[in-house]
Amino acid sequence: MTLTLSAEVVTLTTRHPFIIARGGNSDYRVVTVRLTDADGLEGWGEASPSAYYGETAETVLAVLKTLEPHLPADPFDLDAAEARFARVVPKNGAARAALSGALHDLVGKRLGVPLYRLWGLDRRRTPVSSFTIGIDSAEKTQAKVREARDYAILKIKLGTDRDEEILRTIRDVTDQPLRVDANAGWTRERALRMLPLLKEFGVEFVEQPLPPDDLEGIAAVRRAGILPVVVDESCVVAADIPRVAEAADGINIKLAKCGSLREALRMIATARAHKMLVMVGCMIETSIGITAAAHFTPLVDAADLDGAALTVNDPFAGAVIGGGPIELPDGPGLGVRRR
Length: 339
Ligand code: MG
Known about the structure:
Order of helices and strands: EEEHHHHEHEHEHEHEHEHHEHEEE
Strand order of the largest sheet: 4-5-6-7-8-9-10-11
CATH class of the largest domain: Alpha Beta
Number of strands: 13
Helix content: 25-40%
Strand content: 15-25%
Shape: globular
CATH architecture of the largest domain: Alpha-Beta Barrel
Oligomer: single chain
Bound molecules: magnesium ion
Radius of gyration: 19 Å
Number of domains: 2
Largest sheet: 8 strands, parallel
Number of helices: 12
């Protein structure tokens, strides 16, 4: 029995230009993937490519073509299939994650169970997702914070020369718990100077304060002992964890980086073995990618799965983010449907 692969580029538009320390815009091109089996059952997956990791919608389409001959005859053959994809294209995590998601969706649909059930997870143990406030002017930042009042936790993008002002601007309009992501935008000196202020503003933890390779610097920020430090850009796959475990308190897992749902589970196990906090994040993506990641959130401490909620044209509905803990859909597989 063979699987048929089809892919479609979807342009997602964010409600506001989505800007982080290294730039950004309003339009994000993702690739949705469909694997159809001989019975006509469809597994859905998504690639949300990031230029930072060397991927675009075009590279995803090219990699999907490359991987097509390596699709498993049996979708239950997940481990071998994912290992093969990673051997053929060791980078290209977003493209591989699309096939991983689609295979898992198909397996769940064949069995008639949601993915979290397949993994034996308790859907009542999902965390609350944060909602991200990208870099913007003071007035726009305040407007965005007001729009985000349904979200119990805000994640603030920093890494500019006016981070103090951004934090004050936000604290002027909300008491919500805050998390901060500098996206590698600070120097060691700047990070150490920011820490007391972040603490004063009630920030819970700081993500990727320094460039990914400066693990010594990140360790120094951690040693200051003021706030927990989570690494994102410094940690792509499970094999990175022993290296970052000394430098940081936690890791941020993204399917677009690690390339597969099974690798995400390995990252969780590896991080736990190193007594680290586990967070799950996302790119700007549709509810297909968000829901794939949401299914393992009963295993994590913190979630930032707002990628679809930041857009105005998500074609799909799946996990519900906002208004309380993440709600996992109960349909088989990913449980995602067309809006
Ligand atoms: Mg981040």
